[in-house]
Amino acid sequence: MRFVTDEDSKKEYKKFLEEHERCNFQQALEWAEIKKPNWKPEVILAEDEDKNIIGSLCVWIRKIPIFGNIMYSSRGPVCDIHDISVMKQLTDGAKELAKKHNVIGLRIEPDIETDDQVFRDIVTNLGYKIKDDAKDFKDEIQPRFVFRLDIKDKTEEEVMAGFHQKWRYNIRLAGKKGVTIKEGTREDLKDFHKIMIETGNRDGFITRPLEYFEKMYDNMQPEGHMKLLMAYYDGKPISGVIPIFYGNKTWYLYGASSNQHRNLMPNYLLQWEMIKMAIARKDDIYDFRGVSGVVDENHPQYGLYRFKKGFGAKFTEFIGEIYIPFKPIRYKLYKFSEKAFRTLRQIKRNINKK
Q: How confident is the model at residue 339 (pLDDT cuts 50, 70, 90)?
């Protein structure tokens, strides 16, 4: 086991990550740059006898007022998740970092399906606990429930054939009604952000500042890991999306839609454009990202669930959060305060919507 410490090991790690079937953009150093300075990234590498990388875990470390430092990994590890020796190397590395940075707890949210009993047994044997009660967006940092579309070795025609008939109709309708899609520049992020604020006010979620998207663009776009796609009608922007491309996958990361011209179905056309890009890249998976785990027509997020489901993707439940509390009492208090903060924030949103 070793750590990424210099430019050579960074290049070695990036190559390993991009070529691995379990690659995830949130494990990338480019993504970690976006999270600075609030989070400090560290990368743990597992090795074979010949010093070749066989596993990795990118963690972020942050100081939490009152409680101390927390260590978090989004969508790691990247390895053979059923090899306990590799998992032990990565866990030992995390424990070493925990001592170095005086960390109260390690949190990992892997993209591993919840019914993977072999992985459950391995992490339990290594001292992790599994948080199994998340259902809604507010319950965890990353969504536990997502829709994923298998596009491996498929043509555009084969993929579209799996869409709901109404979804195919809406895609064609947007084109017939004059909706056009253009790739945006950094300057176009301003239009995207204005529409994002409009979307957040309508749907009741907190939006990130423009500077965050500009930082994302500066770090991810130069090497082709991000695009901004905008939908226009009569020359005016009415919707936008940000896809992320990394390794063998494409993710639909952010979307925004104006209150005007929603009847023209621009969001359906934007999804199809992103899916076509993923197919052209010969990706294995197009990831629609999160939905609520509460599949109820009366749930406020049911419309999002229905929209993503119509593209023929698989409703996927991840294992959720696995964690090691290095300082159990402080970690428990921290988790309680975090949950209370999120609950109060949701109450405030609901009040503001009325």
A: confident
CA distance 320 to 141: 10
Tally the residues of the chain. 354
The one-character DSSP state at 227 is -
273-329 pLDDT per residue, tens: 999 999 999 999 999 999 988 778 888 788 899 999 999 999 999 999 999 999 999
Q: Rounded to the nearest 10 degrees, how much is the dihedral formed by the CA atoms of 29, 30, 33, 35? A: -90
Cα distance between residue 179 and residue 240, in whole Å: 12
Calpha distance 176→214 (Å, rounded): 33
What is the rounded distance in angstroms from the CA atom of residue 297 to the CA atom of residue 299?
6
Alpha helices in the chain (DSSP H): 7-19, 29-35, 84-101, 117-125, 156-161, 165-176, 189-203, 210-220, 266-280, 302-309, 328-353
Which tokens go with 128? Answer: 């992790």
Contact 268, 311 (CB under 8 A): no
Which residue intervals of 140-297 are DSSP H helices? Answer: 156-161, 165-176, 189-203, 210-220, 266-280
The answer to whether 43 and 60 have CB atoms below 8 angstroms apart is no
Question: Does the bond joining 77 to the residue before it have cis omega, within 30 degrees of 0?
Answer: yes
* Distances 20 to 14, 49, 294, 296, 318 between C-alpha atoms, Å: 10, 19, 32, 36, 19
Distance CA 44, CA 177 (A): 51
pLDDT in tens, 5-57: 999 999 999 999 999 999 999 999 999 999 999 999 999 999 999 999 999 99
pTM: 0.92
For residue 37, say if its preceding peptide bond is cis, omega within 30 degrees of 0.
Answer: yes
Owner of token pair 């074979």: 48
Asked if residue 180 lies in contact with residue 231, where contact means CB atoms within 8 angstroms, the answer is yes
